[in-house]
Design the sequence.
């Protein structure tokens, strides 16, 4: 049994404190994120939707400590982010599996690079492989897998060191609708079993609602918060809920933001 | 229905058979052209004359090809020894790149055949000037391919490494280097064949040994069969060196695309 999704009493784990980002380019400064102020609570599943180019990936990299903020700051568990934090796993938009490593070796890369104990690492890796349905493919190379399987392997790699925070940047963008729904169900199961704080970037509104405790809608570039919505649906959620009245109404409200802006990221 | 094959399919499709079949075809065509157009032997020798010369002069050709072989291997070895580290410096340092790269490109535009006589003046008639000549031709492709290999790392892969808090050494050993290997090997293959050319250029300008020297003599005597035989030996040297690099590549990067014999993808 998971905590109540809308539980505002849980402490904030990740805090955006007026964080903003401008990229320096040949044509001068390009403002991609306006100062943002919001919290992600411990154990929360928060999704971000927004038109393409509004700065979603930029925000994820800021949280991951992969990019320096131009102004403001981000705190994780009370500590200012100044580089990649220890307890983070990132799933990138492209699976970024190393071609010269098998599935299991790719997952174990996280353990090797972080110099964590090999024995426990490989045990956990095998558990994850089983959970995401890649059993029997441990010794295959990435090119021998389908797109969905590649992305599942990269999710295992992001989870194998048991991070407190999971960041995902449009992880299912390249998948077909059926595989995507399956992945959504799997992700919900992983999240409720492992009690992680998840930040998911997606361009699918139904996916965001289905998985999240809260959905954050961003405006067009330079990105700012256009709205934050609680998802009051009970857990565990089923695909059938997507046809429900509550689900439909929330999806409509969120979609209205994009029609107002005249653009839908798809 | 049955199809009639000239050779059993297994033979035709084997890796080694195909180039051999092509060589045989070229020989037949060569012979045919000479007969049909009545080309005199002082312009193009008949394939049988070349083959006979190859057999008759084999001890000499073998002895001379050793000299050329040593110079080639020396130049190729130096190309690897200097090319890869310099390429890494160029790939990792903007400063080094801005100073060294333009100079390298400039030096490559100097025709080697024009400066080869200088090496004779500087280093005499021994093997050393030939090694230098082979090195000068073999060096550049190694540098260019290696620089490209190290620079072609995707930003997402760099982000992945950083998210794992990889040290500089880990970044190099676990990410950059394996990622650059296919490109490095393609540079080595070009370099291997060019090193042979370099060694021969060195022998042309000042030597009394090596296949380049045999070519000079044959040329002076209008001995076309010997010349063609020498050219054949040279080509074989290039092929053998190329094949050795290819075998090493197969062992070091069995995972690369070009090695995927039977591609089979599974669906989720
Ligand atoms: N490295 C960069 N240099 C310059 N501009 C960038 C860079 N990365 C992203 N941008 C710009 O910042 C804006 C936000 O990009 P991004 O965060 O990737 O958007 P999203 O993920 O929402 O599609 C875009 O307009 C993009 O062109
Ligand atoms: Mg993006």
Sequence:
């Amino acid at each position: 049994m998971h905590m109540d999704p809308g539980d505002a009493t849980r402490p904030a784990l990740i805090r955006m404190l007026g964080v903003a980002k401008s990229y320096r380019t040949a044509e001068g400064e390009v403002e991609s994120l306006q100062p943002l102020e919001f919290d992600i609570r411990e154990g929360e599943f928060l999704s971000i939707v927004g038109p393409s180019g509004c700065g979603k990936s930029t925000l994820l990299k800021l949280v991951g400590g992969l990019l320096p903020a131009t102004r403001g700051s981000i705190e994780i568990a009370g500590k200012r982010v100044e580089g990649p934090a220890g307890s983070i796993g990132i799933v990138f938009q492209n699976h970024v599996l190393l071609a010269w490593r098998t599935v299991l070796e790719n997952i174990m890369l996280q353990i090797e690079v972080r110099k964590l104990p090999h024995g426990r690492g490989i045990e956990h890796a095998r558990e994850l492989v089983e959970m995401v349905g890649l059993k029997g493919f441990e010794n295959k190379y990435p090119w021998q897998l389908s797109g969905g399987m590649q992305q599942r392997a990269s999710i295992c790699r992001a989870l194998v060191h048991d991070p407190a925070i999971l960041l995902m940047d449009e992880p299912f963008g390249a998948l077909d609708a059926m595989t995507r729904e399956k992945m959504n169900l799997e992700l919900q199961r992983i999240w409720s079993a492992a009690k992680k704080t998840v930040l998911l970037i997606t361009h699918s509104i139904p996916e965001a609602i289905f998985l999240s405790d809260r959905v954050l809608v961003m405006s067009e570039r330079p990105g700012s918060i256009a709205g934050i919505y609680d998802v009051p649906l009970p857990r565990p959620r089923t695909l059938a809920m997507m046809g429900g009245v509550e689900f439909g109404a929330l999806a409509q409200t969120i979609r209205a933001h994009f029609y107002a802006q005249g653009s839908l990221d798809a | 229905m049955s199809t009639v094959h000239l050779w059993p399919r297994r033979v035709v499709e084997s890796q080694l058979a195909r180039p051999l079949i092509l060589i045989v075809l070229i020989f037949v065509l060569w012979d045919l052209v000479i007969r049909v157009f009545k080309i005199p032997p002082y312009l193009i020798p008949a394939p049988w004359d070349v083959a006979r010369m190859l057999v008759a002069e084999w001890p000499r050709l073998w002895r001379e090809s050793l000299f050329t072989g040593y110079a080639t291997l020396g130049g190729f070895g130096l190309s690897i020894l200097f090319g890869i580290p310099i390429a890494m410096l160029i790939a990792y340092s903007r400063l080094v790149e801005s100073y060294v790269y333009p100079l390298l490109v400039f030096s490559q535009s100097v025709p080697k055949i024009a400066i080869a006589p200088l090496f004779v003046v500087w280093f005499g008639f021994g093997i050393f000037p030939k090694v230098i000549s082979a090195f000068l031709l073999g060096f550049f492709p190694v540098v260019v391919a290696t620089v490209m290999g190290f620079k072609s790392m995707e930003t997402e892969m760099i982000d992945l490494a950083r998210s794992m808090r990889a040290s500089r050494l880990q970044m190099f050993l676990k990410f950059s280097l394996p990622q650059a290997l296919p490109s490095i090997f393609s540079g080595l293959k070009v370099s291997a064949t060019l090193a042979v050319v370099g060694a021969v250029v060195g022998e042309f300008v000042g030597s009394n040994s090596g296949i380049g020297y045999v070519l000079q003599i044959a040329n002076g005597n209008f001995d076309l069969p010997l010349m063609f035989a020498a050219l054949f030996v040279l080509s074989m040297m290039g092929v053998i060196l190329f094949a050795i690099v290819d075998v090493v590549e197969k062992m070091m990067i069995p995972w690369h695309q070009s090695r995927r014999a039977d591609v089979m993808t599974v669906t989720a």
Remarks:
- Chain A touches chain B through 35 residues (CB under 8 Å).
